[in-house]
């Protein structure tokens, strides 16, 4: 089954470069190109798309503005923000509005492919530099604000999960993807995904970002 990708960037040379990098991969199909957010949204209504590579700084409708609409209208499309800027504000907004990943435009082919294949499986892909920004701006501030607020009836997530799940949770905190975790422990990415889902369920949260926040809060107590 091919991963169907829509490329969105206002520079045709960038779109052509990404296409040339990806189109020889046997598991990837480029279904279209868009030059701005408006065009991407229009194309998503007619093209079956699994992964959207979305530039952030574009005319008319920016990538962040488009992401807000796409997350609501096309929740099954996995969006990877593609930017020239390692800007904390962009990274935080991408997370807050539902991006599945964030890559810089000087990223090599191997990492682009890893990101595409990772988000296609339902996982998130934020490389270490972006993960660091997320923890500093989203997790640690909440941890500082809530460190004195303890619910005596709440059992720590670290006491609810198995030893293997604790190992996987620690890897998630370190910014590792499911394939990387699978490789470390000699298990399949599907097993990692299932165990991550089990941890999220036990923590009673909706996503990995919330899971990491709670895990860090409770580990520091």
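Sequence proposed for the structure above (221 residues):
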């Amino acid at each position: 089954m091919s991963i169907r990708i829509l490329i969105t960037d206002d520079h045709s040379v960038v779109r052509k470069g990404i296409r040339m990098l990806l189109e020889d991969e046997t598991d990837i199909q480029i279904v279209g190109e868009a030059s701005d957010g408006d065009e991407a949204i229009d194309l998503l209504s007619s093209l079956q798309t699994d992964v959207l590579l979305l530039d952030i700084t574009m005319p008319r409708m920016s990538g962040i503005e488009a992401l807000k609409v796409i997350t609501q209208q096309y929740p099954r499309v996995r969006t990877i923000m593609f930017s020239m800027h390692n800007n904390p504000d962009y990274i935080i907004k991408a997370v807050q509005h539902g991006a599945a990943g964030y890559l810089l435009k000087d990223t090599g082919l191997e990492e682009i492919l890893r990101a595409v294949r990772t988000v296609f499986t339902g996982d998130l892909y934020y490389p270490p530099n972006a993960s660091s920004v997320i923890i500093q701006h989203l997790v640690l501030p909440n941890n500082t604000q809530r460190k004195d607020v303890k619910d005596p009836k709440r059992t720590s997530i670290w006491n609810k999960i198995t030893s293997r799940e604790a190992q996987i949770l620690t890897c998630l905190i370190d910014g590792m993807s499911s394939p990387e975790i699978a490789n470390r422990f000699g298990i399949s990415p599907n097993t990692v995904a299932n165990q991550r889902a089990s941890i999220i369920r036990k923590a009673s949260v909706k996503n990995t970002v919330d899971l990491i926040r709670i895990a860090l809060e409770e580990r520091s107590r």
